[in-house]
Amino acid sequence: MKPKNQRLVLVSAALVAVLAAVLLAMWGLRDRASYFYTPADIAGGKAVHGRAVRLGGMVERGSVRHLADGVTIRFVVTDGKASTPVVYRGITPDLFREGSGAVAEGRLQGGTFIADTILAKHDERYMPPELGNLAAEHKAGKTLQK
Amino acid sequence: MIAEAGLAALWLAAGLALYQFVLMILSLRGSIEVSRTMRAIAVVQGALTLIAFAALIVVFARTDLSVALVAENSHSAKPFLYKVAGAWGNHEGSMLMWVTILSVAGAFLALFSRRTSERTLIAGLGAQAALALGFYAFLLVASNPFARLNPAPLEGAGLNPLLQDPGLAFHPPTLYVGYVGLSIAFSLAVGALLTGEVDSRLARAMRPWVLGAWIFLTLGITAGSYWAYYELGWGGYWFWDPVENASLMPWLAATALLHSVGVLAARGALKAWTMMLAVIAFSMSMVGTFLVRSGILTSVHAFAIDPERGAFLLVLLAIYVGAAFALFAWRGASLKEGAPFELISRETGLVINNLLLSVVLGIVFLGTLYPLFVEALSGEKLSVGAPYFNAVAGPLALILAVLVGIGPLLAWRRERRPVLKRLRIPALIGGTALAITIIIAPEMTILPRLGLTVAAYLAAASILPLTGRNPLRAPLATWGMVVSHFGIAVALAGMGANAAFTSERLAIVKPGDTLSVGPWLVQLQQVTPMAGKNWTAMEAELLASRGHGPVTLKPQTRYFSDPPTDTNEAAIETFWNGQLYSVIGKPDQSGGWQVRLWWKPFVTLIWAGGALIAIGGALALLGRVWRRRRRRPDWRRERYA
Predict the structure, then answer these.
(1) A90 and A61 in one domain?
(2) Do A29 and A40 sit in the same domain of this protein?
(3) Helix pair angle (B386-404, B446-461), 10° resolution
């Protein structure tokens, strides 16, 4: 190959690579990204049943119940406007508490959220950005109500 | 007083960086002789940042609570090691560490670089100073680690107990050396683009830096993966967390750069390409820093949301990446393309390696940033996790692993021998592995099955470059390549085995009850309260056996009082053929405890593979440096070789 052709081939190869990456990523993201919803979104029917989504909100006080097998829990996540029941099998993460924030990953089945993973705050300062905004909105809402 | 001294050192270093940058511009425009001055300034600047960093460590070691950072992140009751490590376990301290490594790397470049031309070195040092300048500004304006608190509180607010682990002491520094080591490749590329001296000499100067940074990145990622595995108690080793991706992206770019810089060094080809990769690699480091430090993405690593800092970092990122790309667009076209090569040649193999790595990099990059784009454009919030990355990047990584077996067999410039013939035995081994997985585990999913197949093939194919000659006389660099490529096979085997053969058990058990997981029978003996220096815990005693000599595992659930947090301390027992992983959860009303067990066959191969990859890199680096030592008296001759 002449050097000039060689460069042309290399540049086109690089362009093809970039294009391939973008196309593959777009294809992959179309049905593999999981959307973040609040209980109000779910009450409004925004979440598609059976698809992987994230649910975020506050764990309602007094809502955590242990099922008979000892490792499955039911609780209710609320954002102050609506609430969604959640079922989770597993050891709850550090700082999973009633009245504090949590994000559940999983899918919606017949009105109940089946969680595969629960992310809770890892320390007093850690707050998923989505929840940070939510908490701020929640507070603002409360102040308005007063 | 010490805090003020640290701050003063930082201001001085920033001043010197500015001076260094101005000298670079003057010397490129005129012909003033500045190389000695530049080198001296770079060294002093590095020393000053070291002083600042040492000052921060001292105030942390003494728990000087009048320093705001210490009051927020430390506590007098913390073990000494974590007091020291706490210096970089927070935003400001870790940024100071980043800047320190950046300037010290610049100082090393000034001290030890003998291979580049003076002009390129000066331009490179100037670029390094420009980089440092932005991050000094970031520290001094937006994240001063030495800010005082008046009045000083009586006690500190503690440190995230998840981070009270030996992993914290070594993981971030290792990763940062890798991240920031790439800045030298960036600066040398910018310098060479400015002077137009993009040649094999530059590549040989750049290669040890890339290799060194890449070794540290590999170690950092491997250690981080193991840390997450045993500390988070989820039994997983990679979560596709944005922060993990932030370290994976520079690694992918550095891996590509490592291979292309070799082409430039050996054959003088792929000039523009290599410069582009050098710019991209460090840009990925900065993107990573931005993602982690701005806390813009949901991540277990994101400590706080701080839009001002995020915006500052984003502006820095835009300036540096933008300027480097503009320079590339301006000067890149004028680079003469080097020695030509045929379609079937080592060069082509390395180009394909680079293309595949770039595609994987692009996929990880887009997947990591997609949530940001979507939220900015539509306000919708979403997250991208393992299903995307595994499905899209996984197959490409496997294709790449297949090609890793072929590339090293090709000759430079033109390959005429029938190379594929040499791969008969590895192909046979891979085929056998595939057949075995089909027989013993017919229900296995496709990706782990292919992973195990490719691992078996690559383990055999990777050692081919040492066959057909006396392996002891092969250059150290060849040995390094073989060990690294073999390490890929080992890691792949671990990932495949873990995905395919892990058994898991989760149940509530009372003392005396027995659970079975994989080949193991595990009995809960008792649960007893414990106390450490700054925590209390419930510790379970589990007796595990599989026919012969039982072993005891003692997982804990710990409670820290400052700040109030609880953590699961997994207990892991390692055997030659896998790990038994145990976690204890919460009690129920009837005196039972949640216990979660995993039997993970050959999971340790994942990190053993990572370690081998890094060791291979170290061998190659040693080989290069040693050869250079031997040649040093006549290094001038090399220029014309």
Answers:
(1) yes
(2) no
(3) 30
A98 touches chain B (CB under 8 A): no
Which residue is closest to A131 within chain B, CA to CA? Answer: B298
Reduced to 3 states, what is the DSSP secondary structure of residue B62?
coil
Provide, as residue numbers in chain B, all residues whose Cβ is less than 8 Å from the Cβ of A122: 160, 162, 300, 565
Assess whether A114 and A126 both reside in one domain: yes
Q: Which tokens go with A48?
A: 């598609």
Q: Are A57 and A21 members of one domain?
A: no
In order of B142, B295, B314, B351, B476, the CA distances from B311 in angstroms are: 10, 11, 5, 36, 46
Task: Tell me whether A23 touches chain B (CB under 8 Å).
Answer: no
Q: Are A39 and A8 part of one and the same domain? A: no
Query: Minimal Cα distance from A133: which residue of B?
Result: B305
The predicted complex's ipTM stands at: 0.77
Q: Are residues A50 and A97 in the same domain?
A: yes
| Domain of residue A46, CATH code | 2.40.50.140
Number of domains in chain A: 2
B372 three-state secondary structure: helix
Q: CA of B566 to nearest chain A CA: how many angstroms apart?
A: 5
**Domain assignments of chain B as residue spans, ordered by start:** 1-164, 503-601
A43-47 long-range contacts (CB < 8 A, ≥24 apart) are A43/A81, A43/A82, A43/A84, A44/A82, A47/A108
Residue range(s) defining the domain that contains residue A11: 1-33
Instruction: Write the DSSP symbol of residue B591.
Output: S
The reported pTM is: 0.90
Residue range B217-276, pLDDT digits in tens: 999 999 989 988 887 777 889 988 888 899 999 999 999 999 999 999 988 888 888 999
Peptide bond into B172 cis (omega under 30): no
